[in-house]
Amino acid sequence: MQILLNGEARTLEAEATVSDLIAALDLTGRRIAVEVNEEIVPRSQHAQQGLADGDRVEIVHAIGGG
Q1: CATH of the structural domain 2-61, one choice from 3.10.20.30, 3.90.79.10, 3.40.50.720, 3.20.20.70
Q2: A single Pfam family, by name (predicted)?
Q3: Which of 16, 23, 30, 48 is the most buried (most CB within 10 A)?
């Protein structure tokens, strides 16, 4: 399946979840926020949130500062 990840095309295996994508990007355990098709996906839903062909996914990193 093809998705747009932060504006760039990416191919994933069929039936991938947000958790699968995070693991593939080596971001597990990092402070990130995930949006799928302009909807925020809570961390508690990453494993249940499936991805579909054509989905637009944005992943942003939380960076502390002051």
Answers
A1: 3.10.20.30
A2: ThiS
A3: 16
